[in-house]
Amino acid sequence: MFTSSQKDRPPGETFVWFTAMGLAVGLLMIVGLLGFIVWRGVAVFWPKPVAEIRLKEGAPTFRGSSNVVGVITKQQAIDARNLSPEQLSNPDPTVRIEKQLFVGNRNYFGVSYVYFNAGDIEAVDYPDGILNIERMEWGNALVYPIALEMKDGTRVDASDPAFPGRFRDLLSEVNKRRAAITRIEKGKIGKINHRMRELQLDERYLARQKTLTATQEQDLKRVRERIRELQTAYDPLAAQALALREQQSDHRLLFRLATGEERSQAMGEFVHHFWPNRMSVFKKIGQFLHHVKEFLIAYPREANTEGGIFPSIFGTVVMTLLMSLAVTPFGVLAAIYLREYAKQGPFVRAVRIAVNNLAGVPSIVFGIFGLGFFVYFMGGNIDRIFFPRNVELGVPTFGTGGVLWASLTLALMTVPVVIVSTEEALAAVSRGVRQGALACGASKWQTIQTLVLPASAPGILTGLILAMARGAGEVAPLILVGVVALAPSLPVDSIFPFIHLERKFMHLGFHIYDLGFQSPDSEAAMPMVFATTLVLILLVVVLNLGAILIRNHLKRKYMASAF
Amino acid sequence: MIMTAPMPEPTAKAETRDRVTNPLSGVLERSATNPNPDPSLRMDYIRVSNFNFFYNQTAQVLFDLNMDIPERQVTAFIGPSGCGKSTLLRNINRMNDLIDGVRHEGDIQINGHSIYDPYLEVISLRKRIGMVFQKSNPFPKSIYENVIYSLRVAGRKKKSELDDTVERSLRGAALWGEVKDRLHESAFSLSGGQMQRLCIARAIANRPEILLMDEPCSALDPIATGKIEELIHELKASYTIVIVTHNMQQAARVSDRTAFFYLGRLVEYDETQKVFMNPSNPQTEAYVSGRFG
Q1: A395: burial class by Cβ within 10 Å (0-12, 13-18, 19+)?
Q2: Mutation target vs A (from B90, B126, B139; most A CBs, 10 A cutoff)
Q3: Does A455 contact chain B (CB < 8 Å)?
Q4: Own/partner pairs for B274-281, CB < 8 Å, 24+ apart?
Q5: For chain A, domain boundaries
Q6: A454 contacts in B (CB within 8 Å)?
Q7: In Å, how far is A437's CA from the nearest CA of chain B?
Q8: What is the pLDDT of residues A123-162, one digit of tens each?
Q9: How far is residue A491 CA from its own chain's centroid?
Q10: What are phi and psi of A101, to 5 degrees?
Q11: Residue A497: cis peptide before it, omega within 30 degrees of 0
């Protein structure tokens, strides 16, 4: 009989625990970080109830009123250094707690968030009639509606059961009209503006010449003629947009603030609304999904702190895909030469070490290189050769940061990852297969092309996945080579030639930085920071999943022989 | 007489190029028009003369080999591990060129032409010589694509030609009946023995003159081995076969002539029957009777 005892344990087995603990700590950190971001990011979109708080007699008032309406967003202990001796000795612990309240109505109150001492609160109520309105400007409004004032002078009182439906219809009407205005301004007027800008540059360029040849005179005349034509085409469109814009303020909403003041605003200034204290769970879920959708597909407003992040998502995707397109052939070809053709020796070893070290160079250094080489040198020369007119007028085209240069800079930064993983994948292709191909009369290149590369495609894709994950999340180099906080237009649109690689773009990573550290109201921006971070992580996951699916497909296709 | 590896002499260049661009071109034309040429065999079809081979400057693995391998017969190389039989085999289609630092002295001729002729493209040499490896090495492609690989890399595209080649080669490798309904499935769906026969089909797809087999059955079970031996017997009519084997019975069963190598030297080379029944060298006798090696 064998009995198990401490002595029988094979030596070193306890080290299994260390390895397991290493993994557990790593997992814990990842799950903790992701969980935190997901929780805070998702919570942004959940419609929260709005409280009406009555403050105690004698407590500090809010704008002269002891009534405050807002969403309770945070509750925390007051820093002991900020407490008075009475508060410290008070037996009631609530006096040492403060609550953060999102009060909205920034145009009326001047602030979005207010702190209250929990001990000053007399009563908290969730009144049914509060309306949460998302506005084009100044953030959300939390109001008690009084009445709708229609253009024809009629009124619909808030107590009227038809009021909610009427309000909703008017809101969808102004939203449709706003979309029509945007279509005119961004579409037709945008196209005219684009052409106009080009013509005006032509005009300026020609007007600067000291002496004009006969053909240049002709050109100048024709350009001015075209500008006049465009102006005549522009005027009716502008008038149309203006007329629509005026209709936006036909109907107004009269409402009362928590502080008792009565105000009114045109319907055209509103975007969405919901009744925060009147919603069933299903309605809340619907509202939540609506918020998520708006966040993903809408353009930003109010210095990016309101609205959606669509341009940032789009810019990130375009940049990452362009980077992948640039880095894959570059890295794969370099790796093929290094592994298959270069004579293995001290020089190749040195090259390999140098490539590996390239991965450790700080990304900002790549940004500086990109600025110097791609933007100033390559872009500058492209401008000199292809856009001499713009150079003379001091309007750079490619000679300034843009999505193309940003992609190439990141491609350069991630190329070591692709080279290393491609080299490993090439080395893993069995000698048997290579020799079999050579024995069939294939040349070395044919062997690589027909057998080695397809068989190492999964490994190459693994490298690309790593490169994409690193590239999509990188911010520092982008600041130098073309990312902006607010880009006027997307890098892809309906104006010929449709893909504008020279344009500046928005990026989720930079968006996070801009919201979190550059925005005037950091409290208001914080929820957006979490939501944007969540989107960035999800985007990287989606891009990677795409690559992983392709890789698995290839793996099945080129599955190595079993023995 | 020791011939060093012929390096192109600048003066001889133009002359040689005029004389012969591809020393095997005559052979190719013959085999392309008629896979079973005249029955009069060439007994010195592959001629190895004064052949020495080094893995680097000092490590010599083959010592002064001289042998003539006859056309359309099976010649078996036997000997203990490390005796150089595989090395010689892999020199016949210059697969050893892939190893860094190798060097040879002497010459190997096929049908009278040196395989080390500097004007001979090694690729065109390998196209005339099929090779089957110890470990079956099907490509990660369909059965069909595996068989026609040598035609693909030669740039042949005609569908009917490719289809014909697949059927002929798979029939030649006795695999047609088993796979004809799943030609477009992955080659990895085959069993071990089928894979090795697929590799044989691939090796004969380009109608080579010579088939080199490097221990083709060492990873197979007896039934698969039997099938391949039967196949070798059939292929002998059309191809010159050189087979390296560790299995003495196999050598005795399939080969017409047997060469016994020991420590890089050719100890005995004769009719198989004679080598096994009445060897003239005591070392050979000891090896074939299982007393050493």
Answers
A1: middle
A2: B139
A3: yes
A4: B276/B248, B276/B251, B276/B252
A5: 51-147, 157-250, 310-557
A6: 140
A7: 8
A8: 889 988 899 999 988 888 999 999 999 888 888 888 888 8
A9: 14
A10: -125, 130
A11: yes
Residues of A in contact with B130 (CB under 8 A): 439
Q: Using CA atoms, how far apart are residues A121 and B23, in angstroms rounded to an integer?
A: 104
Q: What is the Cα–Cα distance from A399 to A543, expressed in whole angstroms?
A: 30
Q: Which residue of A has its CA nearest to B203?
A: A440
Q: Which residues from chain A sit within 8 angstroms of residue B127, using beta carbons?
A: 440-441
CB contact under 8 A, B188 and A557: no
- By C-alpha distance, which of A549, A543, A481, A475 is closest to A513? A475
Measure the CA angle with vertex B12, ends B8 and B13; round to 5°: 65
pLDDT in tens, B242-253: 999 988 888 999
What is the widest separation between alpha-carbon atoms in chain A?
112
Cβ neighbours around A343 below 10 Å, total = 7
- Judge: A441–B202 Cβ closer than 8 Å, yes or no: no
Q: What is the pLDDT of residues B92-140, one digit of tens each?
A: 989 888 888 888 999 999 988 899 888 888 888 888 899 999 888 899 8
Given this model, what pLDDT does residue A522 score? 78
In whole angstroms, what is the distance from residue B218 CA to residue B205 CA?
23
CATH topology for B10-21+40-288?
Rossmann fold (3.40.50)
A74 close to B (CB below 8 A): no
Closest-CA residue of A relative to B138 is A433
Taking the whole predicted model, whether its pTM rises above 0.90 is answered as: no
Alpha helices in A183-309 (DSSP H): 190-208, 214-247, 281-297
Go through chain A and tell me how many residues it has: 563
DSSP strand pairing (B74-78 vs B257-262): parallel
Mean pLDDT of B69-89: 90
- Spatial distance between the Cα atoms of B65 and A552, rounded to a whole number of angstroms: 51
pLDDT > 80? residue B277: yes
The Cβ of residue B63 has, within 10 Å, a number of other Cβ atoms equal to 14
CATH class of residue range A310-557: mainly alpha
Query: What's the gap in Å between the CA of A355 and the closest CA on chain B?
Result: 25
- Average pLDDT for chain B: 82
d(CA A252, CA B167): 84
Is A432 part of the contact surface with chain B (CB cutoff 8 Å)? yes
Which residue reads 């190997």 in tokens?
B108
- Whether A560 and A543 have beta carbons less than 8 Å apart is answered as no
Is the Cβ–Cβ distance between A486 and A382 less than 8 Å?
no
Q: What is the mean pLDDT of chain A?
A: 88
CA distances from A205 to A210, A398, A449, B10 (A): 11, 19, 52, 65
Q: For residue A157, list its beta bridge partners.
A: A147
* A440:B186 CB<8 A: no
Instruction: Give the start-to-end residue ranges of the domains of chain B.
Output: 10-21+40-288
Does the beta carbon of A560 lie under 8 angstroms from any beta carbon of chain B? Answer: yes
Q: Which residues of A41-79 are buried (b: 16+ CB within 10 A; e: fewer)?
A: beebbebeebbbbebeeeeeebbeebebbbbbeeeeeee
How many CB contacts within 8 angstroms connect chain A with chain B?
Answer: 80
What residue ranges of chain A have pLDDT lower than 70?
1-9, 558-563
Mutation for A interface: B122, B137, B212, B214, most A CBs within 10 A: B137
Distance to chain A for B50, nearest Cα, Å: 25
Q: Which pLDDT score is estimated for A378?
A: 92
Please give the structure tokens belonging to residue B162: 């490719």
CB contact under 8 A, A435 and B137: yes
Residue A438 sits at the chain B interface (C-beta within 8 Å): yes
- ipTM of the predicted structure? 0.81
Residue B21 banded pLDDT, cuts 50, 70, 90: very low
